[in-house]
Amino acid sequence: MSDFNKEFTAASSVPLILSILSKGESYGYEIIQQVSLLSAGQVEWSDGMLYPVLHKMEKKGYVSSRWKIGDNGRKRKYYQILEEGKKQLHKEQANWRLITSIFDQLWIPNLPST
Amino acid sequence: MDTKPSFHLKQAIDEWEYPLRQSGVFTADNLAELSSHLEDSFLHCAQTGRPEQEAFERALSRMGKTERLIDLYSDLNWRLLRREYLLYSLFGVVCFLASAPLCIFLGFLLLLLLLGLGLDALALHALLWPSLLFILFAVAYLASSSILQLSKLRLSSNLHWKRAMVVVVSILGLLTLCFGSSFTMGPILALLPDDMLTAWYSFDFNAINQFVRFGISAIWAGIFIVAAIWMSQKGRGVLGSQAIIRNRQLAFGLGGLVTMVLVTLMNFSMGGFALFAIYLDISATQARLGAQWSSLLLQFLFLISYILLFLFPRAIDTKGHRHKLPIELAKLFLLVFLLFQGSTYFLHVMTEQLAHHDLSHALYFENLPWQMFVFYLIITVLPIARFYQLFRKGELITT
Question: What is the mean pLDDT of chain B?
């Protein structure tokens, strides 16, 4: 991971996971790979921290999980987003868009304020 | 010839898993998921052309430190850990209760042995009794603590039922020793010379009783405070196998501390009852009734403290203000200890007063055995019932 601090990683982990799972069910290793790929290797989570986050999300009813045999014949635990998770994702999107628009106004020169 | 050592993935994953399994904070499902992830990560690294050993090390470093994983999962699986705290706390309660009659019994037995050798009874009594009891209490603590370590109890799904049974058998064994020593105390006392018994009851009661109680309190408070300070310095409840041991000792010490609180309440309650009986000049029947109601109240208080104990470790594991924890705990212990000593003295004075009114019989011989019977019944039946419940749910068997 580049200069990401712990607080930022913690704050962004739930919306990132929900966003990835909204595209389709996935398993832990694949989620981590996608985050790394989408950020061009700039965001790299410690693998072990992902699962407690996923389990907490499962307890909150955002996602559900099931063991499934993968393409390579090995068992993996797949996670899929639930209705509650989709609602949470909408809330997260609204919050992050608001924050982004604030930074845009502050950091991009000559951008008209909305 | 290629002399490169062969790499066994399954064995390497097992070795990595071992401390995690030992920590007791992971379920079988958690471990299976982490192992599957590690394997994925290893295969990915190996595909890039790295040697297998190097690929595995790379996968391990991506997974993060073992201590950090234990830390994260201990937060996640708090419910599982709470069961462990509960059982160790109960173990602490039983050890605390069992140690006093057992040590006194053994002390008397040793004195009898020395008397049989023709030594001066009173001189021996005065010289040996306090130090003898102190040593016995230390041995009682060390023995119970060793059982605690040897049992390696896990109440998560990784628990092997045999280990759990060791603890149940230990608890029952201690209870048997406690009851046995109480029942055989009478015949042992009958064998001791009258002058020694007179000295014990009239003069030594206050000094030695206070000293012995101080010994018990100091030992349990020691475990409690040391474990609490350690926890506060590390900032987390569970950090590796050493921390698990500390946590068990903390729960063990808490069990003793709660019992001390209960005995304090019992002393105040019985002393208060004696005061009430003396000043209202009540009859023996009323005294009996009052004593029985006070017993009921005490059992209720015990259950409340039992529930509080169940919740307490979580409370001290909360974030923030952790640096103040040792001071707060030391203050708490001091308060409990002073109340404990004060209540003992109060009860002693009140009992002497009660004897003048011929009511001490009602207080001690009709109230106390019944009360202790219920007390022991609760602390024996509850853990057994809990074990049975876990056994039925299949959570005591290794998966």
Answer: 60
Q: Is the ipTM of this complex over 0.95?
A: no
Residue from A33, A37, A49, A55 to probe the interface with B (highest B Cβ count within 10 Å): A55
Closest CA to B250 of B280, B274, B271, B229: B229
List Cβ neighbours of B242 (8 Å cut-off, separation of 6 or more).
none
If one counts every other C-beta atom within 10 angstroms of the C-beta of residue B202, the result is 9
What is the edge-to-edge ordering of all strands in the sheet holding A26-27? A26-27, A75-81, A63-69
Q: Which two tokens stand for residue A57?
A: 């999300």
> Residue B238: what residue type?
V
* Look-up of token digits 């951008």: A111
- Two structure tokens written together for B70: 């234990």
Element spanning A68, H or E: strand A63-69
Torsions phi, psi of B160, nearest 5? -90, 135
d(CA B305, CA B299): 10
Alpha carbon A77 to chain centroid distance? 17
Query: And the tokens for B245?
Result: 């041991």
The DSSP-derived string for A21-58 is HHTS-EEHHHHHHHHHHHTTTS----HHHHHHHHHHHH
Among residues B32, B43, B42, B33, which one has the least CA distance to residue B62? B42
CA distance A20 to chain B (A): 18
CB contact under 8 A, B36 and A49: no
* pLDDT score at A22: 95
Pairing of strands A75-81, A26-27: antiparallel
Higher pLDDT, A58 or A46: A58
Q: Enumerate residues 203 to 262 of chain B having a beta carbon within 8 A of any beta carbon in chain A.
A: none
What is the separation of C-alpha B58 from the centre of its chain, rounded to a whole number of angstroms? 43
Closest CA to B92 of B219, B243, B266: B219
pTM (predicted TM-score): 0.49
Contact B37 A55 (CB under 8 A): no
